[in-house]
Amino acid sequence: MRALLIAGPTASGKTALALSLADQFGGAIINTDSMQVYRDLSIITARPTAEEMARAPHHLLGTVDAAENYSVARWLADAGAALRSIEAEGRFPIFVGGTGLYFRALTQGLSDIPPVPEAVRAELRDWAEGRASEDIHARLAALDPETAATLRPSDPQRNLRALEVFMATGRSLVSFHAERKGAVLQSDEVLSIFLAPDRDVLRARIDARFDGMMAAGALEEVERLAARGLDPALPAMRAHGVPGLIRALRGDISFDEAIEKGKADTRAYSKRQHTWFRHQAPDFTWVKPEEAEVWVVAKKSEIAKTP
After folding, report:
1. Cβ-based neighbours of 189, under 8 Å, separated by 6 or more
2. CATH class of residue range 118-177
3. Do 193 and 292 touch, CB atoms closer than 8 A?
4. What are phi and psi of 254, to 5 degrees?
């Protein structure tokens, strides 16, 4: 086994498990979460603390400015470099996070989609400004029903991206997905687990963690981010909790409403994570968090004994 992949919904205990296994295996951790890469989002994304990061080498945490639109392709290149560095040091790589697209790119590579001309992108962005996300999805469905069927109407960014690809190439986005390349690891080189807590327990942990983040200074962190005046469409500006807290800072809603929105958005995201990994990541074994460490240690020992 060349690497361990630990996925799971937010607040499922991934960090604690990864640190314990890193202690036992001489491991180094590679962040596989699309929000924890942003330098500006330490508290609101529950990034590992300085004390936790001191227990094992960590890679790709807080390395990107919030003004950047960090892509899956960039993460894959950075993850590949981190993997080579960890292996050169004789350590065991442990990929940890909840971003399904990152995990898929790791072992399946990326679609070779041609760059979208800026004129096409600008025209579509102008058209989409101020429109409901359902309208964007409806236009995509009329032009590219195959891709539209795979996307939620409430996800304007991905629907707009699919529109850009279709308008620029005349091809469905999903047709490019069948032509993937650039995988960093092969599926038979990794042990992949998905932490699957009891749903009621998970919901309670999500709410408690959000309260803890607020007590730790999440509001002040978001206030500093808002002061930068960044494009609200940037990924960092859409991290769970950020839009609601910015609205509260502007006086549009109360802070209690913003906190409840942050919790609700995070709970909804955890449901989508379950659904995505169930249907899109069949190689992942679902394990209860309280059983995961024993399971991984036993499985790793079993693999090590295989001729």
Report:
1. 1, 2, 3
2. mainly alpha
3. yes
4. -80, 160
Residue 114: what pLDDT?
79
In CATH terms, 3-111+180-305 corresponds, of 3.40.50.12160, 3.30.200.20, 3.40.50.300, 3.20.20.70, to 3.40.50.300
In what side-by-side order are the strands of the sheet with 285-287? 58-59, 27-31, 92-97, 3-7, 190-195, 285-287
Q: Are 144 and 173 in contact (CB under 8 A)?
A: yes
C-alpha torsion sign, points 4, 35, 205, 277: negative
Look at residue 271 and give its three-state secondary structure: helix
Report helix, strand or coil for 13: coil
Give tens-digit pLDDT for 230-281: 999 899 999 999 999 999 999 999 999 999 999 999 999 999 999 999 999 9
E runs forming strands in 170-262: 180-181, 190-195
CB neighbours of residue 172 within 10 Å: 19
Looking at the chain, the domain(s) classified CATH 3.40.50.300 span 3-111+180-305
Q: Would you state the pLDDT for residue 229? A: 96
pTM attached to this predicted model = 0.82
